[in-house]
Amino acid sequence: MTMTKDFNINFPPNIATFQIKKYGLLISCFLCSFWFHAQQNDWENQAIISTNKMSARATSYSYTTEQDALDGIRENARVLNLNGSWKFNFSKDSKHRNNDFYTTDFDSSQWDNIDVPSCWEMKGYGTPIYTNVVYPFTSNPPFIDRMNPVGAYLKEFELPKNWKKKQLILHFAGVSSAFYCWVNGEKVGYSQGSRLPAEFDITDFIKEGTNTIAVQVFRWSDGSYLEDQDHWRMSGIHREVLLLAQPTVHLTDYFVRTRFDKDFNNALLQIRPEISIGEHTNIKDWTLQVKLFKKGSPINILDSLYIGLDKILNEKFPPRDHISFGLLEQEIKSPLQWSAESPNLYTLVLTILDQHKQVIESRSSNIGFREIQITKDGVLKVNGKKIKLMGVNRHDHSATNGKTMTREELKKDMELMKKFNINAVRTAHYPNDAYFYELCDSYGIYVMDEANIESHQIGGQLSNDPSWNHSFMSRVIEMVERDKNHPSIISWSLGNESGTGPNHAAAAGWITDFDPTRFVHYEGAQGLPASPLYAPFNSKKYKSNYRSKMTNPNDPSYVDVISRMYPTLEQLNSLAVNPLINRPVIACEYAHAMGNSLGHLKEYWEVIRSHDKLAGGFIWDWIDQGLLKTAEDGQEYFAYGGDFGDQPNLKNFCINGIISSDRKPKPQTWECKYVFQPIEFTAIDLNKGIIAIKNRFHFKSTADYNLVWTLSEEGTEIQQGILKDIIIQAGDSLQVQLPIQSTFPKKEKEYWLKVAIVHKKATVYSPIGFEVAKEQFLLKRGEKTSVTSVVSKISVQKNDRKIVLSTADFQIDFDHITGNLTTYKYKGKLLISSPLKANFWRPQTDNDQRGWKSHKLSKFWRHAADQLLLKKIKTKTLKNGEIQITVLQEIKNKIQFEQRFTIYQTGYIHVNIALIINENVSMPLRIGTTFSTPNSNDSMSFYGKGPWENYSDRNAAAEVNVYRGKVADFVHNYVKPQENGNRTDVRWLSLEDATSNGLKIVGDLPLSVSVWPWTTLEIEKALHTNELKANQHFTLNIDAVQLGVGGADTWSIKSITLKKYRLNAKSYKYGYTIIPKVNNID
């Protein structure tokens, strides 16, 4: 008999208004509960979360043969896929919904068609809403005080002929937010909870021939109060729909555990199966047989392992203590261990055999031998080895399908994570599609599986309300039950930003008893009121003693780790050394990657790697949540909150991924790859080619990798080699000597050594030779060469308005009023088309604007360049005929800005800059100059750090080399336009037209440069990329230095970069030379 859960316990529906008054009130409230139920909608009643829904179970499928189960091809199972085109009708509000569409004689011929799975907002029905904290409706739990759209779905299907006398299960993988279901006009059940499956036994509702499923989906329900996550709010049948068949005697569920011996050599395989049988079924001599296969192997490695079905069904629970977990157990000798680095999988096949040894049903799962430990000193271990979680928070997101993701998109996420050295994911903030966990198992990703619980706007109100306990418990229990057999899952998370209270504690207690093999996480569980050191939240004692340390003084015992959001480096270090903390510390959210961000990630990991107690963290977040939209002019762009007229909205706060909305790497992605790389290289004696290699893998040696090295001369490779047999065990180091040449023939050139670890063989996510880790070392710095003078005269003409310097080849104009160099022509070609002037501002990044608020704290610098007044301009002829023009500009009592131009007869212009800032003046965002050049000079090359955009606090991954392309190739288009395209450590930059004519900038010391098809003002005014229209000139920014991008968060002073990347000095000097490139002259 199949067990079902019918959650119709009528706690008082508005108990939330009582806050957390004494639970004794429930006695009287219970007397009124039936009256309330009669008055109240199911979808506005926290006491009703489902009717007739089957118990949650691990994902598996019923096969007719053991071999099919071993192969694991779902299409060969007893599965009918109901995805595809469904009939659809949309009602803007529940009051006007169609209430008879499920009847057998209803005519739906005039209805629309809609794809299932999909979000109906992405199909033109209703409005997608992006909000973070604020509910999309007035907060009044459990009621929905807003128009509540309803979608009605109809689907016809034919039952496979060989499915007669089978139990039939209708499986909805995900429906948002609540729904009723009918089959052939008969009501089947109700369910809510948007991110987990709902299964209904529809055996008694099915007929021969054509059958009809009707589904009525409500956009909002009382469950929406627990789904207040920071993402797009969308609706509909957003995950797959399946019809599953199984024999009347079948394997209902099973739970698999593995446990190693103390030496982590042999392991105990433990299995707890659950069986269901039909009425009047004789199962005497029926057995459940278990086999285990190495993934891809046909050989069973188990000794005979089976159990009688009657023994399973007749198990007795003792009055004290507990039953033994493993109904089936067997020791496995030296199994291959599962980890994120080596995701070794075995296929477990469970088969029911009748008394004649005939197969009744066979099911399978991929399992891994993996054990999680937390030591007494707070170190997180997997299989006895310390690990660090180099993770990301991941939302379901598709730029074209919203919350509905294809299997191809899920697989793409997995491939990108592995390519960029990410080893962990937090399913923020809800369970993902079941297929995602299969991918994590096979590719190797540690998973923190998070319950679909977030009540951000009202904090812990619902966790402290006993009438909501069942909602909390069901969401946690169903997640754990579905996902319990995945080796990739190392942690259960109780949700996100929902305060803390008895409901969280109860859920944690259930997990700890049901599955003690994984650790329990919940960041909201902070503060230990039982401690005499505790201080009430917002008390003076808390603010002075604990807030900056992120403790109070510890966390509740029902969580196994200390979890924090957005700690600074100092706060992380403080948690690591706190003697009261003996649990692993995890930054469940950190490094807020909104817009141009993710600065000083390298420094975060220097701290994390220096303390065993720091177990790592999860970057916020994985993907920009932009939705593809087309403007009136046909140009596509990524939309964000408010772009659909959605209210409330938080604008572009959903754009904070390390990959773009269309799953392309961003500059930040490459920085992650470098910081997370599993191999570290250190120079020992570069003159002799000696380097040290440290293996930072937790488990693997370097046997699967080759070391390749190249020696280059300013972008030209002159020597290379490969070392194939470097074997370094996990955690160990080795010094190697590379046979690089010891002499460097060209004194003026720089020479660079690059070393890299690459795959020897192709993997599921990468080809042969794929680069996993790298480092670049400067072997020899080039010697500066002087500018050659030509003995000829430069004409100098002055009037009230300008100074004109000219020869037969060039003309350079200076404005006599401002002192700025205004135009430069060489051999008739215009090279500088707008004034070369000071530049102290940048188009604000999200961290600048939303975070530390540069427009307020550094407001002075926004227009400082335009407010400079000329104090003096001086012209001088040097001994070889060069002309030197010194321009001194100032804002009185604020800054002095001096430019010294040396104009050579060749047309070269050397620019020397000196800036003095008074003590009472705030910090600028950049120290530099800017001018325009015609956009015909659209071929760009530079010698510096690249190829991707980089900044002073986010350039560890970039390599010094010569890069070439179009100007557009070196711009990064952030979804909300902002500062972009910068390159650091630039020795020279060249811009040329189609005839190779243009100009070149050569720094006295390495520069920070960028080239845009727009001006700073145009970038700042634009809200979306399609609003940026290329003009006739490029903006060329030449800086001594620019402020780092920062990004500890994007809403407080924490967002500013570390002190060493700020512009706090009060004087700066730098210089560069402008060189004309016309007719092959430079």
Question: How many alpha or pi helices?
Answer: 15
Alpha-beta classification: mainly beta
Mean pLDDT, all residues = 94
CATH class of the domain at 795-1077: Mainly Beta
Shape designation:
globular
Q: Which percent range fits the helix content? A: 10-25%
The span between the termini is 87 Å
The major pleated sheet works out as: 12 strands, antiparallel
Q: What is the tally of beta strands?
A: 60
| Oligomeric state of the chains present here | single chain
Rg from alpha-carbon coordinates: 33 Å
- Unreliable stretches: 1-38
Assign the CATH topology of the domain at 795-1077: Beta-galactosidase, Chain A, domain 5
- Proportion of residues in extended strands: 35-45%
In the CATH classification, which architecture of the domain at 795-1077 applies? Distorted Sandwich
